[in-house]
């Protein structure tokens, strides 16, 4: 690998870590359940991106199947959470913000 590759991969990894820290703040402070659900979906994307950077650093292709499975699980969990929130809103159950 060239020096430029090392610099770009290190920069990508640094940005992923910074995004992860900001993501944890959003999960902790998120005012609604929907904000937290979106943050969990972004966490799945950051994990996949981190695995991709690791695969690029080690120059292996074995992680592709793991990345595909994680992407599928992230998508299905996002759809499940969205359906749960939509069903709760249709049922008229007040959220925590509305009860306060």
Description:
The chain is 86% helix and 0% strand. The chain has 100 residues and is mostly helical. It has one domain. Helix 1 packs antiparallel against helix 2 and helix 2 runs antiparallel to helix 3 (63-91).
Describe the structure concisely:
The protein has 100 residues and is mainly α. Helices cover 86% and strands 0% of the residues.
Overall pLDDT metric: 86
The description of the largest β-sheet is: none
Give me the secondary-structure category. Answer: mainly alpha
Strand content: under 5%
Number of helices: 4
SS elements, strand count: 0
Low-confidence stretches: none
Helix content: over 70%
Number of domains: 1
Taken from the alpha-carbon principal axes, the silhouette is elongated
The end-to-end distance, rounded to whole angstroms, is 56 Å
Rg is 18 Å
Order of helices and strands: HHHH
Note the main attributes of this structure.
mainly alpha; 0% strand; elongated
List the helices and strands and how they pair.
Layout: H1 3-29, H2 33-58, H3 63-91, H4 96-99
Helix pairs in contact: 1-2, 2-3
């Amino acid at each position: 690998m060239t020096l430029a590759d090392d610099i770009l991969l290190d920069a990508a990894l640094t940005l992923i870590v910074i995004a992860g820290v900001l993501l944890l703040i959003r999960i902790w402070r998120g005012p609604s359940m929907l904000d937290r659900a979106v943050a969990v979906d972004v966490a799945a994307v950051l994990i996949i991106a981190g695995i991709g950077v690791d695969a690029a650093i080690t120059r292996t292709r074995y992680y592709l199947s793991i990345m595909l499975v994680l992407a599928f699980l992230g998508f299905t969990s996002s759809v499940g959470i969205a359906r749960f929130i939509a069903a709760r809103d249709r049922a008229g159950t007040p959220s925590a913000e509305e009860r306060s």
